[in-house]
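Escalated from tier 1: coenzyme A holo job.
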Amino acid sequence: MVTERLEEKGYTIREATQNDIAEVMHINRVCLPENYPAYFFLQLQSNYSKAFLVAEKEGKVVGYIMCRVEYGKSHFGFRIIKKGHVVSIAVLPEHRRQGIGKNLLLNAEKALKEYGAKEIILEVRVSNTPAISLYEKLGYEKVKVLKGYYSDGEDAYLMAKKLE
Ligand SMILES: CC(C)(COP(=O)(O)OP(=O)(O)OC[C@H]1O[C@@H](n2cnc3c(N)ncnc32)[C@H](O)[C@@H]1OP(=O)(O)O)[C@@H](O)C(=O)NCCC(=O)NCCS
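Tier 2 regenerated the structure:
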């Protein structure tokens, strides 16, 4: 795992287990309006376990990322490729700006490459400046505006990155 400077702050990043799902669901509800039933988390954990990661400090889960793999048209070419899709990422407010989000994403990218993904995509609210800053810092590009993507009518940016 890439855990740039996190270990010295007492954080570890590891693959999630089914026992983490309750804490992950709690973080998801605290941090995001897009919430899902337990079976959805459990399915992603069971199908794409290498790309479902948690950040932990002192035995407590403080952040997560969960992803899936799908086929679709490349955003940087014309071929149909395998893409990694970040379904959700969040870090509890009191643990932000310490590099956890960045390390979760970098480790998920490595895992998605292992699943054969050539690109990685995600949707983000156009108003979500912190997340957009993180993604742009890691090389993601806005490739499309998805009009009215969210249930409250807000648009999303579809962002994509080529995995080397
Ligand atoms: C987006 C989120 C996951 C970032 O997590 P984080 O652990 O705070 O991010 P990091 O500390 O790794 O930040 C890495 C870089 O991203 C950028 N960034 C992160 N938060 C930022 C903010 N509030 N404002 C501006 N830039 C920000 C910075 O460039 C930062 O580097 P720096 O701290 O050295 O300046 C977190 O803010 C979050 O959980 N938000 C609510 C849930 C959410 O919006 N998820 C994304 C849905 S698409």
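The first strand starts at residue 11 and ends at 15.
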